[in-house]
Amino acid sequence: MRSSILRRNQEVLRTCEASTRRTITTSSSRTSKAPLPICQACSRKLLQPPAQRQSQRRFLSSAATQTNPSSDDSIRSNPIPQTHYEFFPKTLPQGPPPSGRFHIDIRELRREFLQLQAVAHPDRHPHNLKTRAEATSARINEAYKTLQNPLLRTQYLLSLRGIDVAEDETAKVEDPELLMEVLDAREEIENAREEEELEEMKRINEERIERSEAILDAAFKRDDIEGAKSEAVRLRYWVNIKESLDAWERGKPVVLVH
Question: Distance (Å, rounded) from C-alpha 180 to C-alpha 154?
């Protein structure tokens, strides 16, 4: 009786082993459909060998790193740009004039700015990288603020050539017609009783700014620094008038800085 039971158990074990070998062979040819082979004799999942699981983990970890690089890696590996233009390689791939254009697509610039800040935000970095992240974020803000403003952009480009028109009080346009136009604008703004009276002046002044931008674009393109410097001073008048129009209040005196 005992020998009969032993023979029966041996037959069951041989059947299970044979079934297991068949299942593993079948499963290996259908890896994508059945990642874990199952013994059809005992209905138990067969565990993967440790070496195979470790190899798989390394592959997944490597793929995740390649497709989704961390912001910490960006902070560590990316060098700090030397000019404002280098912060925005997608929007400004050619860099500053004369290789690139003076005109900038402000919408594209803002889109890239938001993407950069999402990566450089200090809250996304560990303590040991937070100081550098804060400095990078501040520089990105400064670059965006400067480049999105035509006057600040002009002054910045001239400063790269060693010319400071932002703080130079002697940088004025000796053009009597221009000065008369500026004085007339100040008087009209001061005498306005309602803001609606200034709508036409706003339209005219926007056209002045657009003309100055076109002149600056051409001047920087041909590397005419003196011409760009002269137009930068003129643009400063128009921007100052724009700021006075935007901040208009009845009876408020107008101070046009030039």
Answer: 24
Instruction: Name the pTM for this structure.
Output: 0.65
C-alpha 215 chain-centroid distance: 28
Distance CA 195, CA 213 (A): 26
Tens of pLDDT along 142-195? Answer: 999 999 999 999 999 999 999 998 776 566 667 788 888 888 988 888 888 888
Judge whether 202 and 196 are in contact, CB under 8 Å: no
3-class DSSP state of 44: coil
Q: Please identify which residue in the block is written with the tokens 């960006």.
A: 74
- Reported as a single tens digit per residue, the pLDDT across 14-57 is 554 444 444 434 444 444 444 444 444 444 443 443 333 333 33
Q: How far is the C-alpha of 192 from the C-alpha of 43, rounded, in Å?
A: 90
The candidate with the shortest Cα–Cα distance to 157, out of 201, 223, 202, 244, is 223
Residue type, 88: F
Kindly state the tokens that stand for 124.
């996304």
| DSSP structure class, residue 88 | -
CA 153 from centre of chain: 18
Structure tokens at 172: 């004025």
Which residue do the tokens 């082979």 mark? 37
- Amino acid symbol at 212: S
- Percent helix, percent strand, percent coil in the chain, to nearest 5: 65, 0, 35
- CB of 220 closer than 8 Å to CB of 228: yes
